[in-house]
Amino acid sequence: MSSEVKAKEPWAFFKSLVALALILLCVWAAQWQYHRGVDRHARNTVIEERIAKSSLALTQVRADLANYEWQSVTTVGKFDPKKQILLRNRYSEGKYGYEVLTLFTSDDLRTFWVDRGWVEAGATATTAPVVPPVPSTDVSITGRLRLDSSLPRGSFFALPGKGEGLVSELNAQSQLNTAKFYIDLLSGSEQGLTPAVPAQLPELSDGPHMAYALQWLFFGGLVIYGRILIRRTR
């Protein structure tokens, strides 16, 4: 009587170890994508709820700034045209331009930056863009409250009061002692204050994170299936 002895699979333990590592990686990646999706959905819900609220006076916002971010606020004060910053690398409908930030002091003596929206770049790299002037008198403004940690990052240069030429680059936050928030301007009491292209809201979709989480689980299943096939072919 003869019996057939099945050949032992070479490197079986090593192959199983690699498969296990890949499965654990897929499970970790799926959990990471899932939690990113949950966090993004929660953020979007907060933003949508707050931008739907009625405007409140900035004087009512004194503590817990994070609880008011994205809500519309109104205040009265004066712009400082000599303290103006243009953030580079901003685009609107495919055109290159800058985000304009101008220093503002409210009647309750709080100084902060106001994002006045987007302006198109000048004709050349050394030509300053045309920035709408600000009134020299007290004005009322309405805008979305933003945390200082959310201030748009990037290279920037400062403009003198009349916007003529470029001056040396500086860091707005280290050179001036401003409040821990800024405002995305929506409208103002004077003509010309309302931005032609206001600061954009972030994308409020939940993104593909949940789909990616399922994909990673699917990849983990493929690893298991592949390991079984390799085992059976021996």
Which bin fits the share of residues in helices? 25-40%
Label the structural class: alpha+beta
The fraction of residues in strands falls at: 25-35%
| Mass-distribution shape | elongated
Number of H- or I-type helical stretches: 3
Give the strand order, joined by hyphens, for the main sheet: 2-3-4-7-5
Notes on the protein architecture:
- The two termini are 23 Å apart.
- A hairpin with a 4-residue loop joins β3 and β4.
- α1 (12-51) packs antiparallel against α3.
- The protein is built from three helices and seven strands.
- It has helices spanning 12-51, 172-175, 209-232, and strands at residues 56-57, 72-92, 95-106, 111-120, 139-147, 156-159, 181-188.
- It has a five-stranded mixed β-barrel.
- By secondary structure, it is of the alpha+beta class.
- Mean pLDDT is 81; it is low at 160-174.
